[in-house]
Amino acid sequence: MAANEDASCLFCAIISGKIPCHKVYETEHCLAFLDIMPISEGHTQVIPKYHAVTLGDLPDEYLREIGPIVKKVALATGVEQYNIVQNNGKMAFQHVPHVHFHVIPKPNETEGLIVGQQNWPQTKPENDVLAATCAKMRQRL
Ligand SMILES: *[C@@H]1O[C@H](CO)[C@@H](O)[C@H](O)[C@H]1NC(C)=O
Ligand SMILES: [Zn+2]
């Protein structure tokens, strides 16, 4: 259960287990799980177990715990180059109103985040493909 839980929030539902996820890593205050529409293999969301819409609303104790987890997850992708993206507000491309840090591997020039492109080049892998990626990342933690 997220502190300050919002019943209509997708990420709060993932934290409480009402919606399943491919869990990569979890601590008392944070959760890391695979994005189900990844830009590249290993694209992960790292979120606080506290419903805050933007970073400015998030208590520092959650933020302190997130930083090292973002690093740990980035290393667990096994890809040397990557983007960490954290959007705040609709106009700033935030689609889920619960603070989240995207970890997006950049394996080569064509895959991963391409800044300037209008839409993120999302893919839609099958559940077993996501499960395999998740298992691979967990082994690297
Ligand atoms: C880019 O990296 C991905 C993931 O490793 C790979 O599947 C793809 O073939 C690569 N593309 C190029 C052009 O090297
Ligand atoms: Zn929430």
TrEMBL record:
Residues 10-113 form the HIT domain. A motif (Histidine triad motif) lies at residues 98-102. It comes from the Eukaryota. It holds the Pfam family HIT. Gene3D superfamilies: HIT-like. PROSITE patterns: HIT_1, HIT_2. GO terms for biological process: nucleotide metabolic process. CDD domains: HINT_subgroup. GO terms for molecular function: catalytic activity. The active site is at H100. InterPro entries: HINT, Histidine_triad_CS, Histidine_triad_HIT, HIT-like, HIT-like_sf. This is Hit domain protein. It comes from Mycena venus.
